Amino acid sequence: MPLIKYVDHSGNEFEADVDVGKTVMEGAMDNMIDGILAECGGCCSCATCHVYVDEAFLPITGTAEGMEKEMLSAVNDPKPNSRLSCQIVVNDEMDGLRVEMPESQY
């Protein structure tokens, strides 16, 4: 079970073991980690699960495309490493993945 690190806008770090096949968003919700609101429940239609992926993991998580990329155009402070955590499906290679949550989601 990969360990995912969630970092809030103040730099506080929270760790959660997330089952392979679940999303990074589900890992946060299952472990009651603040900063990922997930108002649409993971349907890629609200962008309230916006995160910044640690650049070292971008080759594994990939970049936003299609509908996700369109949704990210509406968030505050989008960056090249912005992703919707509902669209990142956890796999074994993501052990140690670090995602930062923007201040706008608090």
UniProtKB/TrEMBL annotation:
Pfam families with a match to the protein in the record: Fer2
CDD domains referenced in this protein's UniProt entry, alphabetically: fer2
Cofactor names: [2Fe-2S] cluster
Keywords in alphabetical order: 2Fe-2S, Iron, Iron-sulfur, Metal-binding
Any one GO molecular function term: metal ion binding
Domain 2Fe-2S ferredoxin-type: 2-105
Gene Ontology biological-process annotations: P450-containing electron transport chain
Membership in a protein family: Belongs to the adrenodoxin/putidaredoxin family.
Protein name, entry field: 2Fe-2S iron-sulfur cluster-binding protein
